[in-house]
Design brief:
This protein is of the alpha+beta class. The protein has ten helices and ten strands. The chain binds iron/sulfur cluster (2 copies).
């Protein structure tokens, strides 16, 4: 998901949003290129992708990150990205690919879900995501573009159940904006705060341990109802993690210290 300022007809790199237009696409087990796109993929994972996949696999976020991801500084020099680690077979297959297709289909990550669309967002004066634009991506090996079915963006998003992912990923885009501003000061990427931010944003199970086994809840004013929600929901945990990172990097709410 790229973040750019809005230009309704055309973005600065020349890409034109689909807008109200349509595109042709079809993807199903009978298509000749079936699963070609699931090999040797350079795939960014968002925090919500990790929550969905680790819960699907029944493992902790720590285990998931260790086994299925690698991280490195990619398009943001101030914060590492988590990437899906491909298998070490000859074709570098996605670890979740079987001969029948995706074994985690209902919990597949955002980029698999959204393809062949790519999403970009515009921000308002508070740097919050306020408008989304969609572009068509076209890989030569993907024969889905030759299929006859026409889609609007809305039809595709509904069909692939993308809305929930987009809604939660937009919270991550707000965090990503903070990281892109180099919030680490003179310590740079060696700042201990970066490690805490990584944990709070991407490793919800470790953050849960941190939340309940340290003085966190005696220091921060977290409503009882929200504490209960974090016990039940990894997404609520992730949101509290984001609020905590925002607090210690920018000094802004909604999280506040007790007594403030
Ligand atoms: S997660 Fe599923 S859909 Fe995505 S690349 Fe892997 S096998 Fe393909
Ligand atoms: S049509 Fe495109 S998205 Fe579908 S399996 Fe083929 S390469 Fe992948």
């Amino acid at each position: 998901m790229k973040t750019e300022k809005p230009a309704i007809e055309q973005f600065s790199d020349g890409r034109k949003p689909i807008g109200e237009g349509t595109f042709r696409f079809g993807c199903y087990p009978g298509v000749k290129c079936f699963t070609l796109c699931c090999r040797d993929v350079d795939m960014y994972l968002y925090p919500y992708d990790i929550i969905r996949m680790k819960n699907r696999l029944g493992i902790s976020s720590d285990q998931f990150l260790e086994q299925y991801t690698f991280n490195g500084f990619r398009d943001n020099p101030h914060f590492p990205s988590f990437m899906l680690k491909m298998s070490d077979d000859e074709k570098k297959s996605c670890p979740f690919l079987s001969s029948e297709g995706c074994t985690i289909y209902e919990d597949r990550p955002s980029s698999c879900r959204t393809y062949p669309l790519e999403r970009a967002v515009a921000r308002d004066g508070d740097e919050k995501v306020c408008k989304a634009f969609y572009f068509i991506t076209n890989h030569p090996y993907c024969l889905g573009h030759q299929e006859p079915r026409e889609w609007t963006v809305k039809e595709w998003i509904d069909d692939q159940e993308v809305q929930l992912y987009d809604k939660i990923n937009d919270l991550w885009v707000d965090m990503d904006t903070i990281f892109r501003g180099n919030p680490w000061g003179s310590e740079g990427i060696n700042s201990p705060k970066l490690k805490m931010a990584l944990m709070a944003c991407f490793n919800v199970d470790e953050f849960k341990t941190f939340l309940f086994q340290t003085t966190f809840l005696s220091r921060f004013d977290v409503p009882e109802e929200r504490i209960e929600q974090t016990k039940e929901s990894d997404v609520e945990l992730m949101k509290l993690g984001f609020d905590w990172v925002r607090f210690f990097l920018t000094g802004t709410g909604p999280l506040t210290l007790r007594g403030d």
